[in-house]
Amino acid sequence: MANLSPLVYWSQTKQTLLLKVDLKDAKGAIADFSPVSVNFSANGHGARGVNAYKFELHFYAPINDDTATFVVSDNKIELQIRKLEPEWWPRLVATPQKPHWLKIDFDRWRTEDDAELEEKPRDVRQDYGKEYAELQKRELGYIKEKTKKVYMIFYNLAMFVGYLYMMVVVGVLYYRDGADSIARTYINVGNAFKFIQLLQYLEVMHPIFGYTKGSAVVPFFQVSGRNFILFLMIDMEPRMHTKPVVFYVFIIWSLVELVRYPFYLAQLLGREVGLLTWLRYTIWIPLYPMGILCEGIIVLRNIPYIEETKRFTVEMPNSWNITFDMVLFLKLYLLLLILPGSYLVMSHMAKLRSKKLGRGRAKRRQHLHAD
């Protein structure tokens, strides 16, 4: 069955774009924004009745995909987008031929007075990406992929397999031995966990070398925070190896990654899987608070051990003439983890969820334009 596209009405200002999707009672709306495109899908009542609708648009110029979002109301869905550079566009899409379902929203239309919108030089291979790929496949028998993309596919696949392996091992042992296997979790998968957690530092390098978008600071603190718990709080304290909290934190970390890496793989392969997208931006709601709680318990259980062993503590006198109290550091770490740390992580994920899954149903406006 051919994909059905809803009617989409667009308007612009110099700084923004507004796309109104004509779908009533929409369910499961997903909008995946990139700097040059948007992929949209939803179920609702559109031009062809109640059906699953989807569309893809490649924009005339780059947009700010970090701030792009959408709002679902009873009779429409509005995609709110900021242009990367403030300028008037002569058209919405990259190609001169627009889809038949794309219309101008004359009720909201704005344009620059007496302005001649001169078209910039275009790259045909980008504007006609699907057609170019199909031509390449016919000529060569395959589609050439960029080295970066191939590497990212293998990286995400390898990380998914690694976390899946650890979950399978833990699950099989728990099924076989019951609760007795919980105390042996670190013995069974600890080394594998350390290896794959060290591999995650590659995610700090990816934005530096242009393999992914964003800053290297965020993944650095995320990976380092998890490795602080794994290496310093668990691995270096043998008495922590048998604690049940290690079993729970390993399960939580693995569940998060078993959704995240397949989602990235789907994005790299150009596939939009609605359930996977929903899980990626929803599963954190129960798992992140539980993970923060487990990490806090691990730090708390380590405090008396470090008071006893003086591990990582530097006392006077010494050749550097400095002092460092590891117990005080852990107490401060615990305070920062619970208060600002958890707030920053949860608010960041809530912002991403709003961007990908929308901000929920908006109230019906009191004054509507006549159709």
From TrEMBL:
Keywords: Coiled coil, Endoplasmic reticulum, Fatty acid biosynthesis, Fatty acid metabolism, Lipid biosynthesis, Lipid metabolism, Lyase, Membrane, Transmembrane, Transmembrane helix. It holds the Pfam family CS. It is found in: Endoplasmic reticulum membrane. It is a multi-pass membrane protein. The chain crosses the membrane at residues 153-175, 245-266, 278-300, 320-346. It catalyses: a very-long-chain (3R)-3-hydroxyacyl-CoA = a very-long-chain (2E)-enoyl-CoA + H2O. InterPro entries: CS_dom, HSP20-like_chaperone, Tyr_Pase-like_PTPLA. Its EC number is 4.2.1.134. Residues 3-93 form the CS domain. Pathway: Lipid metabolism; fatty acid biosynthesis. Catalyzes the third of the four reactions of the long-chain fatty acids elongation cycle. This endoplasmic reticulum-bound enzymatic process, allows the addition of two carbons to the chain of long- and very long-chain fatty acids/VLCFAs per cycle. This enzyme catalyzes the dehydration of the 3-hydroxyacyl-CoA intermediate into trans-2,3-enoyl-CoA, within each cycle of fatty acid elongation. Thereby, it participates to the production of VLCFAs of different chain lengths that are involved in multiple biological processes as precursors of membrane lipids and lipid mediators. Belongs to the very long-chain fatty acids dehydratase HACD family. This is Very-long-chain (3R)-3-hydroxyacyl-CoA dehydratase.
